[in-house]
Prior knowledge:
- The structure is a single chain.
- The protein has no helices and two strands.
- By secondary structure, the protein is an all-beta fold.
- Strand 1 (4-12) and strand 2 (20-28) form a beta hairpin.
Amino acid sequence: MKGTLERFPIALVAHEGKSLEIDATLFVCNDWKRGNFLGYSGLL
């Protein structure tokens, strides 16, 4: 599949303590027909 890599800030909001904001690299593809997902099974 063809697409582009885009940088995007993601915030992980903490219920206690400090939240974390990181820059993530996202793969953007117009041909992707399934839903959004974060990582692969067992990776995160």
